[in-house]
């Protein structure tokens, strides 16, 4: 589950990580109120206005600007709120900005070359260990840094049995070229950051940039946080941070219906039971010349209501030109699934306006095929995996 910057900073701050302070606002008037309060608390006269969307590169798209007085706070907030912000990480049409973060200006006057670092905490799936990735080249596209100057990217893996050890935090600070008070502050920062990552059950913390001020303070100026959804039952307060406006509405609807659905860019809708079979189905569609429009795992039950819901969700995608139903009847009987498909087809009527290819294998597969073939519905049955993929290609080419 992705979080907004201000939400990520709230989590970081709760574990003792120093962050750039700020408050979110959803109107220009609220932005001015927030800026006034921030000035009273911090003494800052300038404020940074940051669009809050689930995407990076906001500054490049005009979503991060500096306001030097309250009039600019209001005018800039008015410009950013409601805009469709386009960045390298958004869809082509951009993302609607519903709120902005009004943050303190942490770059001191006279700091012509502030020290900015990159730091992230994530799982190295190759080794099964958490890893801190960091660089002296903060404030830049880390992908470009890794490609053009890979020697400036450092990593530190953490043994899960011991956690982050003091010498590792010091090593990170040394590699960033710090000494004295700044080194001590960075050690504290890294230690608190790793603690926050582990105890919040996150899958990614990315801070770009981490700033060293001229008086040797170390703080997170930005925060990209992704939480592990499988652990949200332990963090009810974090689960409440979910912003459904930032998520694909079809995926949100599917999740509410208990379906595992991921929207893709192809033209063949997939309805499958089991993640492994779903992945195999998508691969075979691709090999047959089609493109999967989605990943959809209906799970172990496939009654008429569940199948009808799945059809409805798949058909919300206007790019879908055919639907492949590929069910293995292990726990669930194929004839029951077939009946569910037939009943759903009857109930939806003319809502189903694309060809449906149905392959059912496993328990009572023979009875299932007969049921579909004798239903009078325009459903194309298949027996073998490759046969189903070939039929998909036939209807796409017709």
Describe this structure in words.
By secondary structure, the chain is of the alpha+beta class. It has 3 domains: 161 residues, D-amino Acid Aminotransferase, Chain A, domain 1, CATH 3.30.470.20; 85 residues, ATP-grasp fold, A domain (Dna Ligase, domain 1), CATH 3.30.1490; 150 residues, Rossmann fold (3-Layer(aba) Sandwich). The chain contains 13 helices and 18 strands. Helix 2 packs across helix 3, helix 10 packs across helix 11 and helix 11 runs parallel beside helix 12. The chain is elongated, with a radius of gyration of 26 Å. Keywords: ATP-binding, Ligase, Magnesium, Metal-binding, Nucleotide-binding, Tricarboxylic acid cycle. Pathway: Carbohydrate metabolism; tricarboxylic acid cycle; succinate from succinyl-CoA (ligase route): step 1/1. InterPro entries: ATP-grasp_succ-CoA_synth-type, ATP_grasp_subdomain_1, Succ-CoA_synthase_bsu_CS, SUCC_ACL_C, Succ_CoA_ligase-like_bsu, Succinyl-CoA_synth-like.
Ranges with pLDDT <50 over ≥5 residues?
A: none
Let me know the largest β-sheet. 6 strands, antiparallel
Average pLDDT confidence is: 91
Second CATH tier, the architecture of the largest domain: 2-Layer Sandwich
- Helix/sheet category: alpha+beta
Note the gap between the termini.
Answer: 41 Å
Quickly name the level 1 CATH class of the largest domain. Alpha Beta
Tally of contiguous helical segments: 13
Q: What proportion of the residues form beta strands (DSSP E)?
A: 15-25%
State Rg.
Answer: 26 Å
Overall shape? elongated
CATH-derived topology of the largest domain: D-amino Acid Aminotransferase, Chain A, domain 1
Could you state the CATH homologous superfamily of the largest domain? ATP-grasp fold, B domain
The counted number of beta strands is 18
Quickly count the domains: 3
- Helical residues, percent: 25-40%
Catalytic activity: GTP + succinate + CoA = succinyl-CoA + GDP + phosphate; succinate + ATP + CoA = succinyl-CoA + ADP + phosphate
Pathway: Carbohydrate metabolism; tricarboxylic acid cycle; succinate from succinyl-CoA (ligase route): step 1/1
Binding site for Mg(2+): 208, 222
Protein name: Succinate--CoA ligase [ADP-forming] subunit beta
